[in-house]
Amino acid sequence: MKKLLAALASLSLAMGASVLALKAQGASRNVWDGVYTADQAAQGKALYDNKCALCHGAELTGAEMAPPLSGAVFLGNWAGLSVGDLFTRVHTTMPANDPGSLSNAEASLAVAYILSFNQFPAGTTPLPSEDAALGQIAITAEKPAGK
Question: Where residue 37 sits, what CATH number does that domain have?
Fold first, then answer.
């Protein structure tokens, strides 16, 4: 019985590690791949200034109850997650005074601006506004080699 329990525990650990590895590999792109356009970021800035800056600050540094959306703290909170995770948080919980009021397109614009402000490069393809596509874009703090 002890051998069976030990084997099951070992199998469980191995499966857990495999699931984590698969999840990390699931993202086919990352924020260093130019996943939004400069036009989206510009539109996102206007939206951010109107709906987000009151709580998160003009420089995305956060205030009181609102976390920063830029810099080391932001990357510490979001690295290892997907742009889809960030999009979902923005879409469902923001703005704080009217949660869930942003359309998918507006939430994508806000995320594009946040990525732009954090010095992730713009590209030629717009950031999508569908959860499945956004879930394939990893947020990584370190620029991968060759990018």
Answer: 1.10.760.10
